[in-house]
Backbone:
């Protein structure tokens, strides 16, 4: 009797929670098209979404999986993806999406819209890599080389490129979103191109306030990463091995940032120093913006003195280049 | 029962109880720059109040007769324990409904959880204590694994502070942890009194300490990965943190680890809360019946 009352009470509490949802639909989840990459390009006033899906022949599992790129346009992302979905016989599964592509024409508002969409759609994993491309649809189209899909190929290429060049792209969606949430104005994403030999990383795209402001080639990307700190510890080769950097530290003053690097060869110290200083001047003059995020760096370390981004040109950036094995002569070093 | 009252069994149970639903929900949506310091302060508060409540219960138990104070304390603890249990249960159902089984009705999720809960409530306390000890080590192992695999993506700058907080800021940072860590810790000594026969500092303190440490580990993992602002936006930071764990370019999909942790900690918290509530109300009812009989005589 007592157990009966308990069972009745349990059922009563459960029924109060909500009405019964359709429990049968979960059985259909195993029949979805898996999306490996999703890209967004500007199409006039509309946004074009491109998805790379994996198609498995459910009647013959021995045959290799194929990929297909589907596109849809709409006034917003939901419409664009909805148009793709409405042309398919099965729903799309975004849980294994590895790459989120941003086309060349995507402006600041659209980029914010893309980030908000990816955050609100819990199916898109936070670990997906964000990349840029001239055109995402063109990039995704083609035969994958090392894995099942072009998207998964890109993930492998990013890791490999990072291991070879020492540049840490920090371009996973949660890393980008974390920077935007912390109020950082500047970040960068790896830039992919499709050429005759397939897809490859061709430098990086610098963003400022969600707007693409500058595309850097591979050599420039290395210098940029060295200045901003997005570089691995240990020996790093820059400019196709022309400079081999063994140590990197930043120190800060009230209006000053000093980059201290050590290179392998003594006769390269002056040339490298001039290269870095010239690089900084050229990028800031060309973009007219704080492309390296110096204002963010100083504001983080001096939270009581919020400096304006408009004064970025007044920030004194100096480079001290030494040969490996030379001792520090003056001052304390704060490492980054 | 003596060997369970002071040993590692209750300590493990207390640790899992304190983790409860806090492990999946913190840091919550009012976090700011000094949130980690606020969390540390909350754990410290929890440890101190465990000591204080243990001393109070020991004093109340020394007076043999039932006083008004004992009665009020019992009713308050029973109601509060019930509220903690319901809150944890609702949070668990919400998480499973949002993340694990979005197309499944909440009623079915609740049925499964409540069935297991009732099964545990019907068992003797020794069963609960033994289970807690086994599951505690599993939970510790999984959390350590998650942290170790996430280390490569940690950014120390996310938790770096460049000035000390004011008292007001510290208080504000501590507030989100009150319902999750500080207040539930009040129930650990009375739970020990009910489950083990008498409260003991060693078991309660070590359990509170380890539970707080594990919650801090999970919470700090999220902060180091996402930073304060993004962690604040995420409804389930630990679940999101685990989804970022990769080996090279490959996703590991360790989400199952989080489901397991939450199931264990939520189950233990609900079991202990309802067990405590039922036991206290039963004692009160017996005392009231006894007094009514005495009054009739």
Residues:
């Amino acid at each position: 009797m007592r157990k009966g009352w308990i069972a009745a009470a349990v059922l009563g509490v459960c029924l109060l929670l909500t009405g019964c949802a359709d429990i049968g639909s979960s059985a259909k989840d195993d029949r979805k098209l898996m999306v490996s990459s999703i890209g967004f390009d500007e199409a006039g006033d509309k946004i074009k979404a491109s998805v790379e899906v994996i198609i498995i022949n459910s009647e013959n599992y021995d045959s290799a999986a194929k990929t297909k790129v589907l596109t849809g346009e709409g006034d917003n992302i939901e419409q664009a993806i909805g148009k793709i979905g409405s042309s398919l016989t099965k729903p799309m599964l975004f849980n294994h999406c590895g790459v989120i592509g941003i086309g060349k024409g995507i402006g600041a508002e659209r980029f914010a819209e893309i980030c908000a969409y990816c955050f609100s759609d819990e199916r898109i994993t936070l670990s997906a890599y964000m990349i840029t491309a001239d055109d995402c649809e063109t990039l995704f189209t083609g035969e994958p080389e090392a894995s099942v899909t072009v998207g998964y190929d890109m993930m492998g290429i990013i890791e490999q490129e990072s291991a070879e060049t020492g540049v840490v792209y920090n371009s996973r969606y949660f890393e980008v979103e974390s920077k935007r949430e912390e109020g950082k104005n500047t970040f960068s994403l790896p830039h992919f191109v499709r050429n005759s030999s397939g897809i490859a990383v061709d430098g990086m795209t610098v963003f400022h306030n969600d707007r693409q402001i500058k595309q850097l080639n591979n050599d420039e990307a290395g210098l940029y990463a060295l200045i901003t700190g997005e570089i691995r510890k240990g020996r790093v080769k820059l400019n196709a091995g022309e400079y081999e950097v063994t140590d990197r530290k930043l120190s800060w003053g009230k209006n000053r940032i000093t980059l201290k690097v050590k290179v392998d060869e003594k006769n390269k110290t002056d040339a490298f120093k001039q290269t870095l200083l010239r690089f900084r001047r050229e990028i800031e003059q060309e973009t007219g913006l704080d492309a390296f995020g110096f204002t963010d760096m100083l504001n983080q370390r001096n939270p009581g003195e919020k400096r304006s981004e408009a004064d970025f040109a007044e920030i004194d950036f100096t480079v001290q280049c030494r040969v490996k094995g030379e001792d520090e002569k003056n001052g304390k070093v704060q490492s980054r | 029962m003596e060997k369970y009252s002071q040993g590692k069994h209750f300590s493990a149970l207390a640790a899992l109880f304190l983790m409860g639903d806090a492990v999946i929900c913190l840091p919550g949506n009012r976090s700011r720059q000094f949130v980690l310091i606020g969390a540390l302060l909350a754990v410290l508060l929890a440890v101190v109040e465990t000591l204080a409540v243990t001393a109070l219960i020991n004093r109340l138990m020394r007076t043999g007769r039932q006083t008004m104070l004992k009665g009020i304390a019992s009713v308050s603890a029973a109601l509060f324990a019930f509220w903690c249990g319901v809150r944890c249960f609702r949070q668990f159902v919400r998480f499973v409904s949002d993340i694990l089984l979005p197309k499944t009705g909440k009623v079915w999720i609740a049925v499964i959880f409540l069935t297991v809960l009732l099964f545990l409530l019907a068992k003797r306390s020794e069963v609960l204590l033994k289970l807690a000890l086994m599951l505690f080590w599993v939970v510790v192992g999984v959390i350590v694994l998650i942290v170790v695999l996430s280390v490569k993506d940690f950014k120390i700058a996310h938790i770096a502070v460049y000035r000390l907080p004011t008292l007001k800021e510290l208080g504000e940072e501590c507030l989100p942890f009150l319902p999750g860590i500080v207040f539930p810790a009040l129930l650990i000594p009375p739970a020990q009194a009910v489950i083990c026969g008498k409260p003991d500092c060693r078991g309660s303190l070590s359990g509170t300490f380890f539970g707080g440490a594990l919650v801090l580990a999970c919470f700090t993992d999220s902060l180091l990965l996402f930073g304060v602002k993004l962690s604040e936006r995420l409804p389930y930071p630990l679940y999101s943190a685990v989804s970022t764990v990769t080996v090279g370019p490959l996703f590991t999909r360790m989400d199952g680890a989080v489901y397991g942790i939450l199931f264990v900690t939520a189950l233990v918290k609900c079991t202990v809360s309802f067990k405590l509530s039922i036991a206290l109300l039963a004692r009160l009812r017996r005392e009231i019946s006894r007094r009514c009989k005495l009054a009739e005589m």
Remarks:
- The radius of gyration of chain B is 20 Å.
